[in-house]
Design a protein that fits this description.
The chain contains 4 helices and 5 strands, in the order E-E-E-E-H-H-E-H-H. The protein is an alpha+beta fold and 128 residues long. The protein has a 5-stranded mixed β-sheet with strand order 1-2-5-3-4. Helix 2 packs parallel to helix 3.
Length: 128
């Protein structure tokens, strides 16, 4: 199998995922995924599609990710990895779709409006 690539996005994060046959190495920006995401609940997002398909030791994953925070980056990687796994085998689509790993979460921060301190918050109203 040649290298298969896919893109995942979440908030301001963009992840480019490269998937190839291997032994289960996951590199994010040149570092191991456990080193890049030391928090367990965040690093669990990265390997979730592989755990769902029992393919943790089947593929090598190389990821370039930038923008946003570590939570958005991990979810962008999850989407990109899920898309790459579906490109490898179309039968993977069902279990990943049930877990909603193939859904792009489009929620982003609402912009600040003029005349207000934040997007929706208003200054205190004074009647007199």
């Amino acid at each position: 199998m040649e290298t298969i690539n896919a893109i995942g996005r979440r908030k301001a994060s963009v992840a480019r995922v490269y998937l190839s046959n291997g032994t289960g190495k996951i590199k994010i920006n040149g570092r191991d995924y456990k080193e890049y995401f030391p928090l367990l609940h965040i690093s669990a997002h990265v390997i979730a599609p592989l755990v769902e398909l029992d393919a943790l030791t089947t593929y090598d994953v190389k990821v370039n990710v930038n923008g946003g925070g570590f939570r958005g980056q991990s979810e962008a990687i999850r989407l990109g990895l899920s898309r790459a796994l579906v490109k490898v085998n179309a039968e993977h689509r069902g279990p990943l779709k049930i877990k909603k790993y193939l859904t792009r979460d489009a929620r982003v921060v609402e912009r600040k409006k003029f005349g207000k301190p934040k997007a929706r918050k208003s200054f205190q109203f004074s009647k007199r």
